[in-house]
Every structure is written in structure tokens, then in C-alpha cells.
Amino acid sequence: DLSSSSSSVRLLSRSSSAERQFVTKHVIPTQGCRVLAFADRQGILFASKQIDSSAQGLLKLSIIDPRHAEQIKLHSKPIRGVKYHVDHGGLIMTAALDKTLKLTSALTSNIVLTYDLEAPAWSCDWSVNDPNFVFCGLQNGKIVKFDLRQTRGHVCTFSADPQPLHSIASIRSNHASPNHMAGKELLLGASCAYVRLWSVSDAHPSDFESETVPVEGPCASVCVDNDSSMFVTSIRSSRTNATATHNLFSTNRSRTE
Fold it and tell me: Half-sphere exposure of residue 35, counting CA atoms within 13 Å on the CB side?
């Protein structure tokens, strides 16, 4: 029950997909592109790409002049997650099915750091509280937290059901968040079977709580707006849902519908 006092999230609205009109400006041929990230300060778009029969990587593309492009070899299997962060001189993070999480310089295209994982990686995100921390969602349903200042291994792991986490997103908590979430980092994780919200303590990373976000149907993706502490879940059409739907939630209890 989203209106109950125990719930940390509130459903604000639900909408069905509708037709939109867009104008094509450029077409860039790619092969195996699944995910994108944008470096706004540098005007660079990164798109996952199959580079050759044995290498997967990124297409580094200038939006000012799309004719200026570069291919960066990074992984041996497809990339499932890619995120950019302006700190550390501008780093692009990639999570791939070859069981590695890699950080690459957006400026030089050189690999800066590689983490080996216990399972194929499906998603990743930077911590909104501290850019030294990153999260990676795995095929086995686990989320792994890393400290970029420690190269030996992860800080902690937490999980729910053993379903591939195709999306994870760090959310900034605020004074209007429920008491048990105050002062903690919120992490949203989504698979096709469920959407879950974790509250993680910065002081004690292994101390966390979680709850299920009520959605109807298979979740395809999530998107977070940290300025408002709101997030959207996109739900595919299914036997029980005739059309795709987009649900808007808030972790801020003071927000009105």
C-alpha cells in the first residue's frame, strides 16, 4: 500500500506510452549498440559497440561534429551498462558480460581501473554521495559496491532475488525522506521480475534495508532525477498490461500528488 506509513516511496502518476514526433539529424551506423552515456562538458556521446568478432567497446562520438569518432576496445563480451562522471578528470564506467567492471579516461581513452566480478555484469552507477564509490549490478541479482581508492576488491555486496539486475541507480536522500532512510544513500535496482529500493549506510556499508517498489508487469528500465528525489519505472506490455506504462515515484514524503 503506497499510502501506508511504512512505505518509503509514493506513486505520483502513471501514464501510457504515446506517439512522439522527432526529427532525425544524424545517423551513425553501429553494430551491437545497447547502452549510451553522455559527457556533457566535453560534448561526447559514448555508445556500446561490437568492434570486431572478439572485442566489444565504445564508440566515442563528438556531438559537435559526428564525423569525429573513435572506437575503444574494452571488453571481450557485450557491454550492458555504461555511465559517465565528470570527477577524476572525466571517467566512463562500463559493466560487461565478461565479468569485469572497467573505468576508462574519457579524455585519453585509456583504461584506468579494472575490477573482476563473480558473475556477468548487467548495470552500473556512481554514488551520488561520493564519486569515489561505484555500484555494479550482476546477473545473479547481487549489487557490488567498490571504492575507487581500493583496487583489491569490493567494499560490500547485497542482493535480493537471483534475477539479472538490468538497471541500478543511486538516489540522494534528503530531510523529507522517511526516518529509516535519512542520512543513508538510496539505491534503486530493477530486474524484469521486481524493482527494489535499498537504503545503505555510509558509515556501515554492510548495514542495509530494502523494500519492494510496487509495479505491475515486467520492468524494462528506471530513470532517476536526484534534484527532486523522484524516479520513473518503465513497464513493458504483457498479458496483464495491454500497453507499456511509465510510473512516477517519489522518495520525498512531503511531495504532494
Answer: 21
